Amino acid sequence: MTIHHPVKRPFAGLLGALLAALAIAACTSPPAKPAAESPAKPPAATDPRGLAVKDAGAPAAAPAAPAAPPPPPPIMAFDEAVQFAANNLFSKADLPVNRGIGDKYQLVIDPLVDGNSGVQSTATQTMESRISAMVKASFPKFELKPFTSENLVRGPLLFIGTFTPVDKEGKNAGPREWYRVCLALVDLRSGQIISKGFARASPQGIDHTPTAFFLDSPAWAPDPATQGYVKTCQGTKAGDPINPAYLDKVFAAAQINEGMLAYSAGRYDEALDIYRGVLRGGSGDQLRVHNGIYMSSWKLGRRDEAMKAFGKLVDFGLGQNRLGIKFLFRPGSTQFWSDKELSGPYDLWLKQIAATAAQRSSCVEVSGHTSRTGSEPINDRLSLMRAQYISQRLASDAPQLRTRLSSVGKGWRENIIGIGSDDSRDILDRRVEFKVSPCGTSAS
To answer: Which of 83, 2, 38 has the alpha carbon at shortest distance from 409?
Structure first.
């Protein structure tokens, strides 16, 4: 039985060692060993085209045996894991020559995120704080600068990172047993990753509560810009290029971050102005921008502007073929949470989802989701009932959708966070999701 704990905030609040080692290889790579010294060889003969000519009399060299993946580091306490990963990253960084200002390299941190959801949390903010302190105390060649577009223009080194709850095999599937710390140092001028850091952290004492902006965000969808950030950090090695989806929008990301900071501080007018500017700039068709305009407008009592922004948010999510809305239900029920501070906008959300979906010729699969607590069969049934309820509401608001809607219960099988806390930390797992597909085919 899924039990919900309301968020009192205005809004709508890597079977065994081999697999573990493979997961590590996907996140970081060992430092290259220097080649052994050998006598100088004469230049290779070339054909008239300038291509090297193979010596026919020389025996063929035996293929080199593939290097074994490095053993995984032990699972450590949070602070120890962060320090381990950051020390690895900074100590082996192949820094660009003649790029420092004076005797220092400018370093900017793009806030760390959860690798599954793209959400910032208390834990990712704590990581950033710990790493900033380490840089100041132990790595004087770097000078920290704020993550702003003005500082990005100077072409600094950029620090990014993900902190991701995973199961024992390092996957986003079963019960979460440890956290993957993945760090990357990138050079904006060369467009390359210049160093990586990795560690495994124990789940004990981790506060995975989303920050104010993400806690209040009503919707979640795959966002190419955020996915580009995560892909740059995960599954890469030093020397790889920065993912273009991230690189292309890094300046917009700095502005978006300023907007999130303003929102979290209660400066809603300032936040709204920043988000509007990003949207006008051509890089603003992003989940965080649409969420930000909706939330800031709602906080300011501008209901019409808020709902227009929510419509764009719905259209963005359906365009990504995956839109999750954070409806809060009463425990074990298909009825919404009774606190109007949380559920007050739900009727307006449903009308906007219905209207936006009705404008498309596609069919819509509505799926219910629960967090990882209680009985699996009960959660499957409850999530189905909730999906059916939402489908009924959509059909009521837009009758033309009635024959184009289907309902399915996913239970906890598609958890995004997956820590099973059943509170504000895994609120995204208790979502209702909308997927579009041509009628007559499955959206899943």
So the answer is: 2
In this structure, what token pair is assigned to residue 400? 């033309």
Q: Which amino acid is at 279?
A: L
Task: Say what the pLDDT of residue 341 is.
Answer: 84
Position 5: which residue type?
Answer: H
What tokens appear for 12 in the block? 């709508």
- The dihedrals phi and psi of 101, each to the nearest 5 degrees, come to -100, 110
Within 10 A of 22 (CB to CB), how many other CB atoms are there? 14
Helix or strand run (H / E) with residue 310: helix 303-319
Beta bridge partners of 124: none
Closest residue by Cα to residue 410 from 432, 435, 443, 438: 432
Query: What is the pTM assigned to this prediction?
Result: 0.83
Q: How many CB atoms lie within 10 A of CB 95?
A: 15
Report how far residue 5's alpha carbon sits from residue 213's, in angstroms, rounded to the nearest whole number.
19
Query: Cα-Cα-Cα-Cα dihedral of 114, 251, 271, 266, to 10°?
Result: 50
Q: What's the CA gap between 149 and 251, in Å, rounded?
A: 5
Q: 327, 367 in Cβ contact below 8 A?
A: no
pLDDT at residue 385 above 80?
Answer: yes
Cβ neighbours for 149, distance < 8 A, ≥ 6 positions apart: 251, 254, 255
- How many CB atoms within 10 Å of residue 54? 10
- Written as six digits, the tokens of 38 are 């050998």
Nearest to 336 by CA among 432, 420, 401, 405: 432
Structure confidence by residue, pLDDT tens digits, 334-353: 999 888 888 899 999 999 99
